[in-house]
Structure formats: C-alpha cells, structure tokens
Amino acid sequence: MKRKLIRLFSSVICCLMFVAAVPLANATATRASNYFWVTEVWGTPLGDGEIAIEFDVGSTHTMQQLGATEIVIWEQQNNGSYEDVKTFSGGMLDRNTTSAYRMVTYQGTSGTKYYATIAFYAKDSEGSEYLYRNTSIFTA
Fold first, then answer.
1. CA of residue 9 relative to chain centroid, distance
2. What is the pLDDT of residue 33?
3. What residues contact 8, with CB distance under 8 A and at least 6 apart?
4. What number of helices (H) and strands (E) belong to the chain?
5. Residue 46 in 3-state DSSP?
6. Rounded CA gap, 72 and 55, in Å?
7. How confident is the model over 65-90, as pLDDT tens digits?
8. DSSP readout, 94-122?
C-alpha cells in the first residue's frame, strides 16, 4: 500500500512538472526586442579575393529609420587573430519602413578568412535600438 502511494505521488509530481514547463517553453519563443523582428547577415566569396557582405533586417512595426549604421570587415592575420580592415558607414538606413536590405563588396585576398560585424539600427517615435550581429567566418 505504501509503495502504491509513493508511485501515485511521484506520478502526480511528474505530471505537475510537465504542465508547469509548457509555459516556459512558450516564453523562450517570444522576441527579445520591441524593434527588431529578424536580422540576417552573411558573407559570400565572389572569386579572386572579392567578398560580399549582405544583411536583411525586419522590424516589429514601421520604423522612422531602419537598417545598419556600420559594417566592419575583419581579416584573419598570420597569428590567427582578426583585424578590422574596412568599415562601411552611411547610406544603409531606410526611412518609414519595416524591412531593409544592403550588400557591400570588398576586395580581399584569395584564401584569407574573413567575417563582418553589422551594427543594426532601428528608430521610431518612442526611441531607438542598436543590435550587433556577426557573419560566419568564410574564406575569400
């Protein structure tokens, strides 16, 4: 009899823990920003050392300004560290929109590894936010 009560009690506790975990799983799916819905960044080798850096950003609602304020390209050095070799700024913000896309190109060195950091920016009548994303490392 005592074993049956322990098993019943254990089953009830397990079920309660499972039911309590369901709202937690849903909470992690919510967006982390009131400004940005999606941010995508990627780098592509174009051949002969030339690379393209692209971004696509979507906002949660119409923004007064949306896009990127800066793109920094990082190049792997002989010692394995990365050094910034090119910065793009200006002309990457759209007005009164919910999405923005840009592509920049850089003439690098064939066989060298690169990645880029993009500084996303969104502004509406209530404020603004910056969000930083890196591309994956890729070889020119």
1. 45
2. 83
3. none
4. 1, 7
5. strand
6. 12
7. 999 999 999 999 999 999 999 999 99
8. EEEEEEEEEEEEEE--TT-EEEEEEEEEE
